[in-house]
Design goal:
Layout lengths: L1 E3 L2 H11 L11 H12 L8 E3 L11 H22 L3 H41 L29 H7 L1 H15 L7 E4 H12 L4 E4 L1 E4 L13 H18 L6 E4 L6 E2 L2 E6 L3 H14 L4 E2 L28
Parallel strand pairs: 1-2, 7-9
Antiparallel strand pairs: 3-8, 4-5, 6-8
Helix pairs in contact: 1-2, 5-6, 5-8, 7-8, 7-9
Length: 324
Amino acid sequence: MIWTDCASAISQLSKILEGQFPAANGPHSDLWVQVFHAVGDLPAQSVQVTKVQAHIGTVGSSPFEDWCLLHNNWADRTALRANFNRPASFWNVYNAHVVACAISHKISRAVQMVLLRVSQAAMKAQATAEPEEEPNVAPVRPPPGSWQGLRELKRFPSAAARWYGQTLVRKILSWWQHTLHGACDSCQWVSHFQLYLDFQLATGSRGPVHEKQWRDADCIDLVGLANYPFRLRARWFAKILKECLCHSCQPLSMSYTQPHSTVLGLYTGCVAVPWPQWRLDEVDRWIIAHVPFGIRRRGESLDILPFSMRDESWPLFPVSSGDF
């Protein structure tokens, strides 16, 4: 009978007792191979393993539990003492191994950075290559009644804020309300890419990031080094924008179509809104500065676009700090 407080050891030993040979590249495989051979000639069911609770002292609810906990504690102390009683030759080998691992890690990161720069240069060269001739198809205009007017936000959408954070929701809704308040331009199909870039140029905010949970990219140090593709970041932004407007009871007409743009010659998710034309033109100019021949077909060249800084020529607007 073997008692141990290590769940992984019980799992591995149970596999060995069932006749499974240890994986050659598994943790501590050299030791488990020795265990496999040690129990290989024993009769079936002659070895049993029991789990003991770890780090709870030496007093249990019965004399048997006291015995198990006491001896488990002795085993822990013996293992600790054995580690510190290793000879100097072991620590010399160990320290040399640590240094070798650190050097290998440094070399590996340097090689990865070279490969990353090569791939980024290749993508940029592909994006700046002159595209093939494509038929000039006029963008489809939204049908009449697609835009039902800007709804006044009387209450803060707390349901959206619980998921995405108050600061980010306030920035997005303040930007949306300020842009469309009193809008007099004609209704056009505006893509999620254009809205995301407009938000960055107008606010200087980098929008949302999803890393197991939703976070404001402005609160993440060196977020640009994470190299999130532009289309993924735009999709995160569009999701939060739609949910914020849904919680705010703002009706929207959406479609998968060609946006109103001189540089985005592709079909993508769009929203029918009377977005100011001068802002759409500025977004087009920003894209052209990074992808001189525009975006065509599936839009892979969009992914190289970096985070945008705020355009100081754009008017400032207040971010709401209370109920709308």
